[in-house]
Every structure is written in structure tokens, then in C-alpha cells.
């Protein structure tokens, strides 16, 4: 069995770190929007609007998977599913890259 050492091993570790970091930033952005929602942040503020737009784009595929009567539950579940998916999938891919 051939082992990976040197440049190839370092490349896998670096790629894994990048994938994990991107997944973390995506999940953080979504989580930050949920926090701003609960804090009733001013949606007219440029930063709040940017975070909301980014989180909405990132969670666009998951937001309407389930529907709830209460808006806050819809926000938590709709955005939370995407955040967890990005973390889990991103870190699974990163782990595979680390082992290359």
C-alpha cells in the first residue's frame, strides 16, 4: 500500500481546511441571521440587510421544506436545516480530504 506523504498530503490538508472554513462561514452567516431575527434587528440597516440576503440565498433550498404556523419556528427550522447541512457535509468532505 502506498502512503501519501509530502506535497500530496499537505495539499489534502490545505484543501480540507478550506472546505471546512467555507462550510463554517456559510453556517455562521445563517446563524447570524437567525440571531439578528430574534434580536429584532433593524432590517433597514445595511449590515442586517446583507446578512439577511446572504442567509436567504444560502438557505433558499431548505427554507420551505417544512411549514409552521409560527414565524420564529419557520425561521429556526428553515435556516437551521441549511446551516446544519453545510456544517455536516462540509466537514465530512474536509475529513475525506484530510485523509487523502
Would you kindly provide a written description of the structure presented here, covering whatever features stand out?
- With 100 residues, the protein is an all-alpha fold.
- The protein has one domain.
- Helices cover 73% and strands 0% of the residues.
- The protein is built from three helices and no strands.
- It has helices spanning 7-38, 46-58, 71-98.
- Helix 1 packs antiparallel against helix 3.
- The chain is elongated.
- The two termini are 13 Å apart.
- The model has no long low-confidence stretch (mean pLDDT 90).
Q: What is the mean predicted local confidence, pLDDT?
A: 90
**How many alpha or pi helices?**
3
Which runs of at least 5 residues are low in confidence (pLDDT < 50)?
none
Shape: elongated
**Assembly state here?**
single chain
Order of helices and strands: HHH
Structural class of the secondary structure composition? mainly alpha
What topology does this entry show?
Layout (H helix, E strand, L loop, with lengths): L6 H32 L7 H13 L12 H28 L2
Helix pairs in contact: 1-2, 1-3
What structural keywords apply?
100 residues, mainly alpha, 3 helices
What does this entry show, briefly?
With 100 residues, the chain is mainly alpha-helical.
